[in-house]
Amino acid sequence: MISSLCSTGTLSSLSLRVTDNPSPSLSIVFVPHLRFSPFAAAAAAPLSVSFHRHSRLAARLGPAEDVSASDDATSKTDEEVPQDPRLADWETARSFKEAGSIFEGTIVGFNNGGLLIRFYSLLGFLPYTLLNQARFCKDSPRPILQRAKDLVGSTVSVKVVEANEERRSLILSEKDANWSRYSSKIEVGSVIDGRVDSIEDYGAFVSLLFPDGEYHLTGLVHISEASWDIVQDARNLFAEGDDVKVKVINIDREKQRISLSIKQLEKDPLYNTLDKVITEEGEVSTGLDANMEPLPGLDSICQELLKEQGITDVQLGRQGLEKRAVSQDLELWLSSAPVKDKQFTLLARAGRQVQEVYLTTTLEQDDIKKAVQRILERVP
């Protein structure tokens, strides 16, 4: 049986010893180790073998050597095992984040959420929300995945915004990198060419054109800065791809936001008097003409004006007809006519019809504008 076990390789060595019992008997001790161990043939003396995690070390030992006593050799082998380069690259990623350094990475792929960026031996993730949207403003509208596919193989400047080795999370941002490079090149009061990138109810996002011919940053034209007219929806003024000229009115460097204005590049449409509005071919009446209907909704507006704090009296004044209809909707303008006895003049316009409204108030001109805007938003 013993010869059978050895021949099949089940046992690699065999040791025999005789016990000290009064009745001598043969005791067999099986000492198993590697099936194809190089010292299977060395059975001249009993051999005690303890296994070690570095099995390749046993193959280098002679038959008379004891692996369990080779602590020095084991320690040396541990030192020879190369360190995973990814450990050092995670440390590099953390240092990039702390220093705010910009990294030039290659786009190697994409998915539904963003782009995959090679960061040394690591794979970083650039969400579409942190991508510089201005890079697409020259492109015709296409699904984001088609645009992302075209970017594979190109390089992108990014900053590390998260480097969590435990969660294997390496998040990158192109917006942060662009802000660091280009925000210092603009200032409040600058007038810049731009292109409408996207539109929301509250305003339009405009990509700003820099001297190098590229769009690097994006700002918001709030609906209140889009026009001197009362605008309810920015989509009524803009379309994606429109070329516009904008003025920088605020830069929030902490939140990385740029506020833009279009209306501040236009003259505030204040009128001196009703006579200035009415053309020579128009008509002016000193009072309510029997043949001229009051402007629809003007009575309700006058009642709302009296509810505003600081307005003590509202009176309707002269009426007139313009040569051409300006707007079918009721518009209300603050005139720049001289103020007498704290009395300001508003001009109400609808179709061809124009009428003066006199306000007695302690409010300043800008506060009156805000009050009028609030009222127009309340009155249908």
TrEMBL record:
InterPro entries: NA-bd_OB-fold, Ribosomal_protein_S1, S1_domain
Pfam families: S1 (PF00575)
GO cellular component: ribosome
GO molecular function: nucleic acid binding
Matching Gene3D superfamilies: Nucleic acid-binding proteins
Ranges where the record places region Disordered: 62-87
Record keyword Ribonucleoprotein present: yes
Keywords (A to Z) from UniProt: Ribonucleoprotein, Ribosomal protein
Name this protein carries in UniProt: 30S ribosomal protein S1
